[in-house]
Amino acid sequence: MKLKSRKAAALLIFFFVLIVGTVASTVVCLANDYCTIRVDYKYSDGSVAHDPYVAVLTYGDEVNLSVKNPIIPGYKPVDSLEAQAESAATTVLNYPSLDDDKTITVYYVPDLVHYRVRYFKQNVRDDLYTEDLSLSNDDYEKKGYTGSMPDSFKDFSGFTSLYHDTDTIAADGSTVFKVYYERNYYLVNFHLGEGGYGVEPVYAKQGTTYNIATPKRAGYDFLGWVKSNDNGDYLDDSGNTITETQARNTARK
User: Fold this and answer.
1) CA R_g for the chain
2) By the 8 A CB rule, do 155 and 133 touch?
3) Which residues of the chain have pLDDT under 50?
4) pLDDT tens across 75-119, in order?
5) What angle do CA 27, 33, 36 make, to 5 degrees?
6) pLDDT at residue number 247
7) CA distance 221 to 172
8) 253: three-class secondary structure by DSSP
């Protein structure tokens, strides 16, 4: 009785080892039957931009897939972070014989997006501001890179840019920059010639309208006013130097 029990136990142990060995062999085989291809989508700082693309394929298969990269407003997908990398609408997965798991990274970098600029100029008579709508469409509707600041804003002669009320260009193209301009103050001197009198200097804002009294000078008739520079040269309305004769003709108008 005891001998038979020992034989039975030995047979059971052998059978168990045989089963366990078969299962282990099957697990290893299954592990080698499939490979995973993964495409990660990240921003340039390494943070996740979109859920990954994952494909499980048979080991040894020839793979030739074209995966469409997700569209993320305000960003473009590139296959590297090199400065000259071009936008990639798709990611090509090409392997003659799939022999291992694969991981590819597609980066999303800032793209050109729309933004709008509104210009506000200080009023002449008070310190409030009025929007300037006289410019061309290109001065209002612009493009810049997501997350950046515009390179510059428009300059207006006689005005100084004070500030704008937003930070950076948003990815969705909704950014509106409101830029405010203060009027410059100028001191206007009048050269009356030796013995001339009757007109005082004027200190006023750009665009201020004021009346000037007619100057007096014994033995002379007043013809009119002409601009001049610090060197005493006569200037036309565009700032070009003109002769004395031209200045006289201009003053008579």
Assistant:
1) 40
2) no
3) 1-30
4) 999 999 988 888 999 999 999 999 999 999 999 999 999 999 999
5) 110
6) 85
7) 66
8) coil
Is 32-110 in CATH node 3.30.930.10?
no
Per domain, the residue ranges of the chain are 32-110, 112-183
Would you state the structure tokens that stand for residue 241, as one six-digit string?
């130097």
Residues in the chain, overall count: 253
Alpha carbon distance 84, 72 (integer Å):
20
Q: Three-state secondary structure along 205-245? A: ECCCCCCCCCCECCCCCCCCCCEECCCCCEECCCCCEECHH
3-state secondary structure of 153: coil
Whose structure tokens read 């009198």?
Answer: 197
Helical H runs in 159-210? none
CA 213 to chain centre: 52
DSSP E strand stretches across the chain: 34-43, 48-58, 63-68, 75-78, 90-95, 102-110, 112-122, 129-131, 141-145, 159-164, 176-183, 185-188, 202-205, 227-228, 234-235, 241-242
Tokens linked to 228? 């001049």
Please check whether the domain covering 112-183 is classified as CATH 3.40.50.
no
Q: Per the structure block, which two tokens stand in for 109?
A: 């970098």
pTM over 0.85: no
Q: What's the N-to-C CA distance of the chain in angstroms?
A: 140
Tokens of 98: 């799939």
Q: Which of 217, 149, 196, 213 is nearest to 177 (CA)?
A: 149
